[in-house]
Amino acid sequence: MYSFTTPLQEGIILKRNSQFTMDVLLDDKIVKCHCPTTGRIGDIDVKNISCLVSQSNNTKRKLLYTVEAISCDELDTKEKNWIGINQILSNKLVEYFLITHQLGNMISGYENIKREVPLGNSKLDILVDNTYIEVKTPLTTIHAKYGIGIKTKPVTPFSSTERFTKHINALANSLKEHERAILLTVYQYKITCPKSHQKSTHYREVYNAMSNAIEKGVETWDMELSFTPYGVSLIRCENTSQLLK
Protein backbone atom coordinates (compact mmCIF):
# COMPACT_ATOMS: atom_id res chain seq x y z
CA MET A 1 0.00 0.00 0.00
CA TYR A 2 1.11 3.54 -0.77
CA SER A 3 1.04 5.05 2.72
CA PHE A 4 0.42 8.67 3.58
CA THR A 5 3.03 10.26 5.84
CA THR A 6 0.24 11.23 8.23
CA PRO A 7 -3.28 9.74 8.18
CA LEU A 8 -5.82 11.99 6.49
CA GLN A 9 -8.45 13.71 8.61
CA GLU A 10 -12.16 13.26 7.95
CA GLY A 11 -14.32 16.35 7.63
CA ILE A 12 -17.49 17.66 5.99
CA ILE A 13 -17.48 20.01 2.99
CA LEU A 14 -19.66 23.02 3.77
CA LYS A 15 -19.29 24.68 0.38
CA ARG A 16 -17.06 25.05 -2.64
CA ASN A 17 -16.03 28.68 -2.80
CA SER A 18 -14.34 28.56 -6.20
CA GLN A 19 -12.41 26.24 -8.48
CA PHE A 20 -9.57 26.28 -6.00
CA THR A 21 -10.99 26.35 -2.46
CA MET A 22 -13.53 24.62 -0.23
CA ASP A 23 -14.76 25.36 3.28
CA VAL A 24 -14.53 22.22 5.40
CA LEU A 25 -15.80 21.49 8.91
CA LEU A 26 -12.82 19.86 10.59
CA ASP A 27 -12.80 19.10 14.32
CA ASP A 28 -15.63 21.59 14.93
CA LYS A 29 -13.72 24.33 13.10
CA ILE A 30 -14.33 25.76 9.63
CA VAL A 31 -11.12 25.51 7.62
CA LYS A 32 -10.50 26.86 4.12
CA CYS A 33 -8.89 24.08 2.08
CA HIS A 34 -7.23 23.83 -1.30
CA CYS A 35 -9.25 21.91 -3.91
CA PRO A 36 -6.77 20.02 -6.14
CA THR A 37 -9.15 19.61 -9.07
CA THR A 38 -10.36 22.79 -10.74
CA GLY A 39 -13.12 21.05 -12.70
CA ARG A 40 -16.38 19.58 -11.51
CA ILE A 41 -16.58 16.25 -9.72
CA GLY A 42 -19.17 14.29 -11.67
CA ASP A 43 -22.66 15.64 -11.14
CA ILE A 44 -22.21 15.77 -7.37
CA ASP A 45 -23.26 18.73 -5.25
CA VAL A 46 -20.36 18.58 -2.79
CA LYS A 47 -22.12 20.58 -0.08
CA ASN A 48 -22.49 18.57 3.14
CA ILE A 49 -20.62 15.46 1.98
CA SER A 50 -17.72 13.72 3.73
CA CYS A 51 -14.13 14.37 2.72
CA LEU A 52 -10.56 13.46 3.65
CA VAL A 53 -8.10 16.28 4.22
CA SER A 54 -4.29 16.39 4.32
CA GLN A 55 -2.29 18.98 6.23
CA SER A 56 0.98 20.43 4.94
CA ASN A 57 3.94 21.23 7.17
CA ASN A 58 4.98 24.02 4.79
CA THR A 59 4.06 27.17 6.69
CA LYS A 60 4.73 29.27 3.56
CA ARG A 61 1.70 27.77 1.85
CA LYS A 62 -1.34 30.02 1.72
CA LEU A 63 -3.64 27.08 2.49
CA LEU A 64 -2.23 24.34 4.72
CA TYR A 65 -5.09 21.91 4.12
CA THR A 66 -6.00 20.05 0.91
CA VAL A 67 -9.13 18.03 0.20
CA GLU A 68 -7.73 14.72 -1.07
CA ALA A 69 -10.91 12.65 -1.35
CA ILE A 70 -14.68 12.80 -1.06
CA SER A 71 -17.35 10.19 -0.39
CA CYS A 72 -20.78 9.74 -1.95
CA ASP A 73 -21.90 7.69 1.04
CA GLU A 74 -24.10 8.92 3.86
CA LEU A 75 -22.27 10.91 6.53
CA ASP A 76 -22.77 8.18 9.15
CA THR A 77 -21.47 5.34 6.92
CA LYS A 78 -18.60 3.65 8.77
CA GLU A 79 -16.79 2.06 5.80
CA LYS A 80 -16.93 4.78 3.17
CA ASN A 81 -15.88 4.40 -0.46
CA TRP A 82 -13.41 7.28 -0.68
CA ILE A 83 -12.99 8.89 -4.10
CA GLY A 84 -9.57 10.47 -4.59
CA ILE A 85 -9.77 13.83 -6.38
CA ASN A 86 -6.10 14.86 -6.36
CA GLN A 87 -5.18 14.07 -9.95
CA ILE A 88 -1.50 14.90 -9.38
CA LEU A 89 -1.35 12.08 -6.82
CA SER A 90 -2.11 9.53 -9.55
CA ASN A 91 1.39 9.88 -11.05
CA LYS A 92 2.96 9.24 -7.65
CA LEU A 93 0.75 6.20 -7.16
CA VAL A 94 1.60 4.73 -10.56
CA GLU A 95 5.30 5.33 -9.91
CA TYR A 96 4.99 3.59 -6.52
CA PHE A 97 3.24 0.56 -8.02
CA LEU A 98 5.96 0.37 -10.69
CA ILE A 99 8.78 0.63 -8.13
CA THR A 100 7.16 -2.10 -6.03
CA HIS A 101 6.51 -4.23 -9.15
CA GLN A 102 2.75 -4.52 -8.65
CA LEU A 103 1.89 -3.95 -12.33
CA GLY A 104 3.46 -7.10 -13.73
CA ASN A 105 0.50 -7.87 -15.98
CA MET A 106 0.97 -4.48 -17.68
CA ILE A 107 4.75 -4.15 -17.73
CA SER A 108 7.65 -6.15 -16.29
CA GLY A 109 11.39 -6.71 -16.57
CA TYR A 110 12.22 -3.00 -16.53
CA GLU A 111 15.16 -1.21 -14.96
CA ASN A 112 14.57 2.52 -15.34
CA ILE A 113 11.62 4.74 -14.40
CA LYS A 114 11.58 8.42 -15.33
CA ARG A 115 8.93 11.07 -14.61
CA GLU A 116 7.85 14.05 -16.74
CA VAL A 117 9.64 13.06 -19.94
CA PRO A 118 9.67 15.48 -22.93
CA LEU A 119 8.31 14.07 -26.19
CA GLY A 120 8.15 16.48 -29.11
CA ASN A 121 6.11 19.48 -27.98
CA SER A 122 4.55 17.49 -25.14
CA LYS A 123 5.71 16.20 -21.78
CA LEU A 124 4.45 12.71 -20.95
CA ASP A 125 4.09 11.40 -17.42
CA ILE A 126 6.32 8.33 -17.17
CA LEU A 127 8.94 6.52 -19.25
CA VAL A 128 9.63 2.93 -18.17
CA ASP A 129 12.68 1.74 -20.11
CA ASN A 130 11.31 1.99 -23.66
CA THR A 131 7.62 2.41 -22.83
CA TYR A 132 5.79 5.72 -22.46
CA ILE A 133 2.90 5.83 -19.99
CA GLU A 134 0.46 8.74 -19.96
CA VAL A 135 -1.71 8.86 -16.83
CA LYS A 136 -5.25 10.25 -16.79
CA THR A 137 -7.61 10.61 -13.82
CA PRO A 138 -11.07 11.50 -15.12
CA LEU A 139 -13.54 13.00 -12.65
CA THR A 140 -16.30 14.16 -15.01
CA THR A 141 -18.14 10.87 -14.38
CA ILE A 142 -17.99 9.15 -10.97
CA HIS A 143 -18.57 5.39 -11.20
CA ALA A 144 -19.78 4.96 -7.63
CA LYS A 145 -23.11 4.48 -5.90
CA TYR A 146 -24.60 7.60 -4.35
CA GLY A 147 -26.13 7.54 -0.90
CA ILE A 148 -29.78 8.50 -0.48
CA GLY A 149 -28.91 11.95 0.82
CA ILE A 150 -26.40 12.83 -1.90
CA LYS A 151 -27.62 15.67 -4.09
CA THR A 152 -26.75 16.09 -7.76
CA LYS A 153 -26.87 19.03 -10.11
CA PRO A 154 -27.27 19.47 -13.87
CA VAL A 155 -24.03 19.42 -15.83
CA THR A 156 -23.05 20.69 -19.23
CA PRO A 157 -20.68 18.89 -21.63
CA PHE A 158 -17.06 19.72 -20.88
CA SER A 159 -14.87 21.16 -23.62
CA SER A 160 -11.30 21.03 -22.24
CA THR A 161 -9.98 18.19 -24.40
CA GLU A 162 -7.13 19.90 -26.27
CA ARG A 163 -4.43 18.71 -23.84
CA PHE A 164 -5.76 15.14 -23.95
CA THR A 165 -5.77 14.92 -27.75
CA LYS A 166 -2.30 16.49 -27.86
CA HIS A 167 -0.92 13.83 -25.52
CA ILE A 168 -2.68 10.89 -27.17
CA ASN A 169 -1.29 11.98 -30.54
CA ALA A 170 2.19 12.27 -29.01
CA LEU A 171 1.82 8.75 -27.59
CA ALA A 172 0.86 7.37 -30.99
CA ASN A 173 3.79 9.09 -32.69
CA SER A 174 6.22 7.81 -30.04
CA LEU A 175 5.75 4.28 -31.39
CA LYS A 176 7.95 5.20 -34.34
CA GLU A 177 10.95 5.00 -32.02
CA HIS A 178 9.71 3.20 -28.90
CA GLU A 179 8.40 -0.29 -28.28
CA ARG A 180 5.18 0.49 -26.42
CA ALA A 181 2.90 3.35 -25.45
CA ILE A 182 0.19 3.11 -22.79
CA LEU A 183 -2.70 5.40 -21.89
CA LEU A 184 -3.45 4.53 -18.26
CA THR A 185 -6.76 5.69 -16.77
CA VAL A 186 -6.61 5.78 -12.97
CA TYR A 187 -9.70 5.60 -10.76
CA GLN A 188 -8.73 6.52 -7.21
CA TYR A 189 -11.71 4.63 -5.80
CA LYS A 190 -13.66 1.37 -5.95
CA ILE A 191 -15.95 1.29 -8.98
CA THR A 192 -19.31 0.26 -7.52
CA CYS A 193 -21.67 1.61 -10.19
CA PRO A 194 -20.27 1.76 -13.76
CA LYS A 195 -21.83 4.57 -15.79
CA SER A 196 -21.62 5.86 -19.34
CA HIS A 197 -18.90 8.46 -19.76
CA GLN A 198 -20.22 11.92 -20.53
CA LYS A 199 -19.26 13.04 -24.02
CA SER A 200 -17.39 16.29 -24.47
CA THR A 201 -18.32 19.01 -26.93
CA HIS A 202 -15.33 17.78 -28.99
CA TYR A 203 -16.32 14.12 -28.79
CA ARG A 204 -15.69 13.36 -32.47
CA GLU A 205 -12.20 14.87 -32.34
CA VAL A 206 -11.32 12.84 -29.23
CA TYR A 207 -12.83 9.66 -30.71
CA ASN A 208 -10.80 10.05 -33.91
CA ALA A 209 -7.59 10.68 -31.96
CA MET A 210 -8.20 7.60 -29.80
CA SER A 211 -9.06 5.40 -32.78
CA ASN A 212 -5.96 6.55 -34.64
CA ALA A 213 -3.75 5.95 -31.59
CA ILE A 214 -5.09 2.43 -31.01
CA GLU A 215 -4.66 1.57 -34.68
CA LYS A 216 -1.01 2.60 -34.37
CA GLY A 217 -0.59 0.35 -31.33
CA VAL A 218 -1.25 2.53 -28.28
CA GLU A 219 -2.62 0.38 -25.45
CA THR A 220 -5.33 1.51 -23.04
CA TRP A 221 -5.39 0.26 -19.46
CA ASP A 222 -7.66 0.92 -16.47
CA MET A 223 -6.42 1.02 -12.88
CA GLU A 224 -8.85 0.75 -9.96
CA LEU A 225 -7.69 1.66 -6.46
CA SER A 226 -8.83 1.51 -2.85
CA PHE A 227 -8.45 4.86 -1.08
CA THR A 228 -8.36 5.06 2.73
CA PRO A 229 -7.27 7.66 5.30
CA TYR A 230 -4.02 5.72 5.67
CA GLY A 231 -3.06 5.10 2.07
CA VAL A 232 -3.96 3.74 -1.36
CA SER A 233 -3.78 0.16 -2.57
CA LEU A 234 -4.18 -1.48 -5.96
CA ILE A 235 -7.38 -3.40 -6.74
CA ARG A 236 -6.80 -4.18 -10.41
CA CYS A 237 -5.02 -3.05 -13.56
CA GLU A 238 -6.57 -4.32 -16.81
CA ASN A 239 -5.99 -3.94 -20.53
CA THR A 240 -9.06 -2.31 -22.13
CA SER A 241 -7.68 -1.85 -25.65
CA GLN A 242 -10.04 -4.41 -27.20
CA LEU A 243 -13.07 -2.63 -25.74
CA LEU A 244 -12.27 0.51 -27.72
CA LYS A 245 -11.71 -1.12 -31.10
Automatic annotation (TrEMBL):
GO-annotated molecular function: DNA binding
SfsA N-terminal OB domain sequence ranges: 14-85
Any Pfam family hit: SfsA
Domain Sugar fermentation stimulation protein C-terminal: 89-229
Cleavable signal peptide: none
InterPro entries documented for this protein: SfsA, SfsA_C, SfsA_N
Protein name, UniProt field: Sugar fermentation stimulation protein A
